[in-house]
Amino acid sequence: MTRAWSLRVPAAIGIAFIVLPLIALLARADWANLATHLAAPVVGQSLRLSAITTTATMVVVWTLGTPLAWLLARSDHALMGWARALITVPMVLPPVVGGVALLMAYGRRGMIGGWLDATFGITIPFTTVAVVMAEIFVAMPFYVVSVEGSMRSLDRRFDGIAATLGAGPTRTFYTVVIPMVLPGIAAGSALAWARALGEFGATITFAGNFPGRTQTAPLGVYAALERDPQAAIALSLVMLAVSVLVLGLLRTRWLR
User: Fold this and answer.
1) Tell me: the pLDDT tens digits for 198-231?
2) CA 13, CA 18: separation in Å to the nearest integer?
């Protein structure tokens, strides 16, 4: 019994450390006027922009990340280990460092951004496109890691069977592999979308915090915290509800 308490006490403290701030957020909300606070301009604008940018982000993540996950899962080349490590760096990299890296690459004086500006007059930083790029940078690794795990668990004999039936690699990928790893794709999509929705550091560094143009939901919370704290709390509650919903959808997969 003593040993049980020696484990339960620190476990309870750990739970309280996470749960108490969420309870405080719920307790400080002005529930009677929640609809009014949700109608504040900063809430509507930031949520609308987040919906647009995260949708665009996921289209790019699906398009690029799915073939990338397949390459990592099926290639035995020695360099693939290093490629995997580089791809997953944004998962542990401080987001603001990611924003600085994006700025150095795509800023007006960046490696690529300087050429785009001088040749085509295209400026990426502090635009909605920059928001999407920041979200792709931080979210794609979560998708690739999840989908790669599902693809790696597939029996490679399916590739051979499809080949004997006349299917090439591309057809096998779309007609055999994708249908069989849909649960992994769904889980990876949910994680990547949630990460994109919550992105703050890389976005504010690379795209700024301009209402209606680059001010996503997390940045909206930050901006409203000083001017209208209840609007910030209301927007935080929306993001909390979305996070709980995403975790609820993934719970069944995690418990398998």
Assistant:
1) 999 999 999 999 999 999 999 999 999 888 899 9
2) 9
The residues, ordered by sequence, that sit 6+ positions from 140 with a Cβ below 8 Å of its Cβ are: 60, 61, 64, 65, 87, 90, 192
**Residues 84, 72: contact at Cβ < 8 Å?**
yes
Q: Are 255 and 183 in contact (CB under 8 A)?
A: no
pTM (predicted TM-score): 0.88
Q: Alpha helix (H) ranges present in 75-112?
A: 79-87, 89-92, 95-106
Name, in order, each residue with C-beta under 8 angstroms of 12's C-beta and a sequence gap of 6 or more.
Answer: none
Query: Are 144 and 87 a contacting pair, CB within 8 Å?
Result: yes
| Alpha-carbon span 86 to 83, nearest angstrom | 5
Residue 109 CA from chain centroid, whole number: 27
CA–CA distance, 219 with 122 (Å, rounded to integer): 25
The residues, any chain, with a CB within 8 Å of residue 62's CB and separated by 6 or more, are 143, 185, 189
Angle at which helix 229-254 crosses helix 217-227, to 10 degrees, equals 150
